[in-house]
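Ticket reopened. Same input as before:
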Amino acid sequence: MHPAPVEGSLAQPVIRRLNTLRRLSDEGVVSLERAIREGMQHIGTGEDLISEGDTVSSVRVILSGWLCRYKTLEDGRRQIVNFILPGETCDAYAYLLSTLDHSIATLTPVVYAEVKRAQFEALVARDRSVAEAFWCETLVNSAIQREWAINLGRRLALERVAHLLCELHERLRPVGLIEGNSCAFPVTQMDLADATGLSVVHLNRTLQELRSAGLILLRERTLTITDLDALKSTALFSPNYLYLYRA
Amino acid sequence: MHPAPVEGSLAQPVIRRLNTLRRLSDEGVVSLERAIREGMQHIGTGEDLISEGDTVSSVRVILSGWLCRYKTLEDGRRQIVNFILPGETCDAYAYLLSTLDHSIATLTPVVYAEVKRAQFEALVARDRSVAEAFWCETLVNSAIQREWAINLGRRLALERVAHLLCELHERLRPVGLIEGNSCAFPVTQMDLADATGLSVVHLNRTLQELRSAGLILLRERTLTITDLDALKSTALFSPNYLYLYRA
DNA sequence: CGGCTGATTGATCCCGGTCAAATGAGGTGG
DNA sequence: CCACCTCATTTGACCGGGATCAATCAGCCG
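Engineering reply: fixed in the latest deploy. New output:
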């Protein structure tokens, strides 16, 4: 499931992700790889990497594993507001606001690199392409967040779930986590329900509808999209907000 | 309604807004004021300031008037994903992604300052406090976007509308647009419906419920919050995500 | 084998959508 | 000044998507 890659390749998803957003300079790649190598950390499933209100004093980039950003209401209702996938950055520049307004939890065991604020600032001061790549990461995150607002506000359950699956598929592809049209999908139906604003029961029925329409296969933590075009069109999916196809 | 302030004070909302997020240096304020004075523009009601897909080559800060960010689905469903209020910045650093993934429309006549990319980059290169203030603006925008996801995904209609009103109230206060507990509120019920993911009909009924519960008055484009505490508690509102109360 | 978590199914209910029409408030031109 | 148009708000009647409640079932682990 999660074979341990050789040390040198661990930074790959991050480099690929940032390179998709902004072409990195060679020196930038080198210093990034060093920072990642020096900051490696592990954390298990179902733990908070950061909790709402915590002070942010470092930047974390995800090398492997899945996480989610979420907030809970006083009465327990939970909304997942985004997923965080390998190669993505949790909180670039978030220290500028001192504290975090939401929590980040792991959905799987996670390997990440923690870069202390001072070290991160030195990194981005030294290489403009790295600084801009991280800013693009932040800006794209905003764009994704906006798209989620549409998803939650204006799409029906079927469209909503289809849209989420399309988005995750697209986000996993540039970091090489799609094989054929399948990918590891370590998300419970409860998580999917909290991400789409649906109840678990209705989410389950919606998945069955997607399955019986021949659009997806989903079992044993593996998602296969059997008809991507059809899935995209039932989702009213348009990938431009992910900014994955730049010159 | 919109008295023309003397020239010198027009930049005030922007300065106050940015100062709330990050203490600006005196020199920063001066150069910011000059850039604003030189880039003044006007635009009427109901127009797109920028449309989805447009190339972004400047930064716009809003001096007066209201706007909204929105996206539409192919079949016409529209979701407003955020409002933009006086003092706020439309698209700081957005040129890093080249194009915009959503549209921004005016809800009133708007006075804004357009700062060309090169000029903006010079501005933020010269003064770190200005650069960071604009980054904070961007990060807070993300935080607001996340809170909207919760609003749309997990709050009931009554809570949802109450929450939006609380948020707008809090955002208008630091720029001095709340008098007593009232403010200009130039938003149609259709706009509110599109912002809360409700139908116009149900939004109307929800407003009536808030009115008859004695929480708000809303007529002739003026909103008065008659019981702010009650409104906040029916909304399950907690303002930390707005980052308005920093040391 | 019992206990736990996650997936699934069935039955029922209700929040909020849809449809349709009426009312009201400007705005405009004759 | 009034007829007329348009756009926003409001109301009523009905419907349906998705929530809720309650079991059942399937793995997995100790």
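The first helix of chain B runs from residue 12 to 21. Confidence is low (pLDDT under 50) at residues 1-7 of chain B. Please confirm and we'll close it.
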